[in-house]
From TrEMBL:
Family under the similarity heading: Belongs to the UDP-glycosyltransferase family.
EC number: 2.4.1.-
Gene designation per UniProt: GT6_0
UniProt keywords, alphabetically: Coiled coil, Glycosyltransferase, Transferase
Coiled-coil regions, chain positions: 434-461
GO molecular function, one term: UDP-glucosyltransferase activity
Protein name: Glycosyltransferase
CDD domains: GT1_Gtf-like
EC main group: transferase
Keyword Membrane attributed: no
Superkingdom, taxonomy of origin: Eukaryota
InterPro entries: UDP-glycosyltransf_plant, UDP_glucos_trans, UDP_glycos_trans_CS
Length: 482
């Protein structure tokens, strides 16, 4: 069989690249004729990507050996990015990189010297690199979008775009209102108060999700990191909507090969099964001193064991991930360490997958990033939702209201304009998560155990995600350029 090559252009940062590599491994493991070249457009703020790709390059197995990494140097930006939102800077970064991507595709796959019996069969992009669909179209190549959020949120993006393009109405008009929006991919009307901040920023970031939704509609297919058993309603709803490309829900795609931190693991080993509450708020999640004190009071009052990942906010105007909190005893209530030392552990950055997989973890307070949601489902760990940014508020709504699979702390919370969440509110959610749900016949814990089994079956032969991946591979093979 003739070999087929895909070009994959991940979004910025390690998180996007790791997810792209995981779907790449899945594709090449199921189709021996497929190879994938990742175009890595280097960001100055990322230092670990080269090390990661070099590590993968020396792994000698039939799947990873068909993954290649090509680092491209982006053009120098001519604009001042100091006062622009981070999302706008990243989108502009990729928009300015279209020419170097085009040249790299032509040089590596479309010139006489690059002909080697391998046919370039398509381009995969993600949400931040979506403008590369235009490059693929110019070169006569089919394009696919790897969508790393939920199918429900994908439907919300299309809803906002249709509202603007067909009805000349901005979704941001509903800001600060009690409006309930009839978004077809949610079972219940969606409160405007949980819309992503970008959709509420009429004169700034709103154009980004609208532009992305328009661009995604031009793709041949959308590969979504979800599975039918988790989101049956959103997936079926999108399948009925006009102008939406073919949908391939092939998840949950998770990087399970994460190294453990021995000091964390040793402590967890000493705890009873399902007894530890894990608090972790993602790569960019952090709180001010006043909010940290409220969390500490709640943990002390509820009396449960806990593992708490603490990060300090970045300086104003600085882009990047928060640092670990160097001296937590200086910002937490006096005596907190002494009073909780036998049942709690404070850490900095957390190897989240390794922690969630541990038998002693019984609950997870999460920022509701979609990867974190899928990881929690995979290991059957009940969640309490505390969204921070991006689309996390609507993820929390889906989990708490539509799926009834999580406890709510504050689903409308936003890190850019935070309100104080009281210790009483936090403690109430912790008690429901760690104590009450263990007794409920159809509670959160039981639903998570059921979804854990469904998530794993979906990936096996005969499962829903296995089936959709087969369809995707067939589509790639059948519609290759001649």
């Amino acid at each position: 069989m003739e070999s087929r090559e895909l070009v994959f252009i991940p979004g910025p940062g390690m998180g996007h690249l790791v997810a792209a590599v995981e779907i790449g491994k899945l594709l090449t493991s199921r189709a021996n004729c497929l190879s994938i070249t990742f175009f890595i457009i280097d960001l100055p703020i990322e230092t670990a990507i080269h090390t990661y790709t070099k590590t993968l390059a020396v792994i000698d197995d039939s799947t990873t050996s068909r993954l290649r990494f090509l680092h491209l140097s982006p053009p120098q930006s001519q604009s001042n990015n100091r006062n622009k939102p981070q999302e706008a800077v990243l989108v502009e970064f990729f928009d300015n990189s279209k020419q170097i991507v085009r040249e790299a595709i032509v040089e590596n796959f479309m010139t006489p010297k690059s002909k080697s019996g391998t046919r370039l069969t398509g381009v995969i992009v993600d949400m931040f690199s979506d403008k590369m669909i235009e490059v693929a179209t110019e070169l006569g190549l089919p394009s696919y979008v790897f969508f790393t959020s939920s199918a429900a949120f994908l439907g919300l993006m299309f809803y906002a775009q249709t509202l603007k393009d067909d009805h000349d109405r901005d979704i941001s008009d509903f800001k600060d209102s009690d409006t309930l929006l009839p978004v077809s991919t949610y079972l219940n009307p969606l409160p405007a108060k949980v819309l992503p901040s970008a959709m509420l920023d009429k004169d700034g970031r709103l154009r980004l999700p609208l532009s992305t939704a328009r661009m995604i509609r031009q793709a041949k297919g959308i590969i979504v990191n979800t599975f039918l058993e988790l989101e049956p309603h959103p997936i079926k709803s999108l399948g009925k909507e006009d102008g939406v490309p073919s949908l391939y829900p092939v998840g949950p795609i998770i990087n399970l090969n994460q190294e453990r931190d021995e000091s964390i693991n040793d402590w967890l080993d000493e705890q009873p099964d399902s007894s530890v509450l894990f608090l972790c708020f993602g790569s960019y999640g952090s709180f001010d001193e006043e909010q940290l004190k409220e969390i500490a009071i709640a943990l002390e009052c509820c009396g449960c064991r806990f593992l708490w990942s603490l990060r300090q906010p970045q300086a104003k105007g600085k882009i990047g991930t928060p640092d670990d909190l160097a001296r937590p005893e200086q910002v937490l209530p006096e005596g907190f360490f002494k009073r909780t030392s036998r049942r709690g552990k404070l850490i900095g950055w957390a190897p989240q997958v390794a922690v969630l997989s541990h038998r002693s973890i019984g609950g997870f307070i999460t920022h509701c990033g979609w990867n974190s949601v899928l990881e929690s489902l995979w290991f059957g760990v009940p969640m309490a939702t505390w969204p921070m940014y991006a689309e996390q508020q609507v993820n929390a709504f889906e989990l708490v209201v539509d799926l009834e699979m999580a406890a709510n702390i504050k689903m409308e919370y936003r890190s850019e304009s935070p309100v104080l969440v009281t210790a009483e509110e936090i403690e109430r959610a912790i008690r429901r998560l760690m104590l009450d749900s263990a007794e409920e016949k159809n509670g959160i814990r039981k639903k998570m155990e059921e979804m854990k089994e469904k998530s794993r079956r979906a990936m096996l032969e005969g499962g829903s995600s296995y089936y959709f991946l087969e369809n995707l591979i067939k589509d790639i093979k059948d519609h290759s350029p001649t």
